[in-house]
Design brief:
- It contains 10 helices and 8 strands.
- Helices cover about 40% and strands about 15% of the residues.
- The chain is globular, with a radius of gyration of 18 Å.
- With about 300 residues, the chain is of the alpha/beta class.
- The longest helix is centred in the N-terminal third of the chain and has 19 residues, at about 80-95.
- It has helices at about 40-50, 80-95, 110-120, 140-155, 160-165, 170, 190-195, 205-220, 250-260, 285-295, and strands at about 1-5, 15-20, 25-30, 55-60, 100-105, 125-130, 235-240, 265-270.
- Helix 2 (about 80-95) packs across helix 3 (about 110-120), helix 3 (about 110-120) packs across helix 8 and helix 4 packs antiparallel against helix 8 (about 205-220).
- Strand 3, helix 1 and strand 4 (about 55-60) form a beta-alpha-beta unit.
Length: about 300
């Protein structure tokens, strides 16, 4: 694995991990989720590398051991920076691996970033996997109001326990008799323990960052924002059936419907029994690994 620092448009240092495969078939660009980091995808990246795919992961700004301010993107319009960061990483991949197709893999909040990214850049990618994809919620508008009030009173880097409890904290309230505050992420208790003991997980978001999350949620749901859509772009949408973040069957169906309305018609979805949010880290995660590998290997039939 090679480490690389890539300078963002505003000179923010983006730490990349590169897993280069010999005679690679494609390059997979990984976008991780909220309050975690790219190191948690090492096993998955190595699996893809062993099967002939080069991989480029990154720490979202405000995440990872080198984060300037954990849980914070920018004081203003941080969601725009998150989109531009992924475009910058894609441009790096195109230069580093010329001629190779680029496949996206995104998890959780990463899928929100990717869905907004695809509103303008769908022709830069050849396949997309969305894992644990959060559904749109009307409360995002009120969330922005709350975040704005908190920022006005306490500053953009203030971390509101109330906003945290009413957003991310709501997922664990859907778990029957939880043993920890993050049981919603996984049935795998070992994974939950590792998450809780990792200083770069569960970092909490600032009020400015929560405003960015709510802004992404609203924008990802607006199908009219998609321009110059690559209608042939294949999607694989994955979720654990016990994942509260996806919004159940109704929320999952709404997410698929938005993509269809945007003009994407090659959408396949798979649901995994006995899994919660982090399907790559459940005890039977090999089923998920194999499904993703099969999708990436599948030849285009059109």
């Amino acid at each position: 694995m090679e480490k690389r620092i890539l300078e963002a448009y505003d000179r923010y240092p983006l730490e990349l991990h590169l897993y280069e495969a010999k005679e690679a078939k494609a390059v997979v660009q990984i976008v991780h989720g909220m309050e975690e980091h790219q190191g948690r995808y090492t096993a998955f990246a190595q699996f893809l590398q062993e099967h002939g795919f080069s991989v480029v992961s990154s720490d979202m700004r405000g995440h990872g051991p080198a984060a300037r301010t954990p849980g914070h993107f920018k004081d203003k319009n941080g969601y725009v920076a998150l989109i531009r960061d992924q475009r910058r990483i894609t441009a790096f991949i195109q230069k580093r691996f010329p001629g190779l197709p680029i496949y996206l893999f995104a998890h959780s909040m990463g899928t929100m970033i990717v869905r907004v990214l695809l509103q303008t850049n769908s022709r830069d990618y050849q396949k997309v996997v969305l894992s644990g994809y959060p559904n749109y919620q009307k409360g995002a508008y009120f969330g922005i109001v709350l975040a704005n009030v908190a920022q006005a009173l306490c500053g953009p880097k203030y971390k509101s326990k109330f906003i945290q409890a009413q957003s991310v904290g709501a997922f664990n309230r859907q778990i029957r008799r939880p043993k920890t505050t993050v049981d919603w992420i996984s049935h795998n208790e070992e994974n939950v323990r590792e998450y809780l003991s990792d200083p770069n997980c569960g970092i909490g978001f600032t009020c400015a960052a929560f405003r960015d999350v709510f802004s992404l949620m609203i924008r990802m749901h607006q199908s009219e924002r998609y321009r110059n859509v690559n209608q042939n772009l294949p999607f694989l949408l994955l979720r654990g059936l016990d994942d509260p973040c996806v919004g159940g069957e109704q929320g999952a169906a709404d997410s698929r419907r938005t993509l269809l309305q945007a003009g994407f018609f090659r959408i396949v979805h798979m649901d995994f029994l006995g899994m919660r949010h982090e399907i790559l880290r459940e005890r039977e995660c090999q089923k998920v690994y194999d499904a993703i590998l099969a999708f990436y290997r599948e030849q285009d039939r059109l």
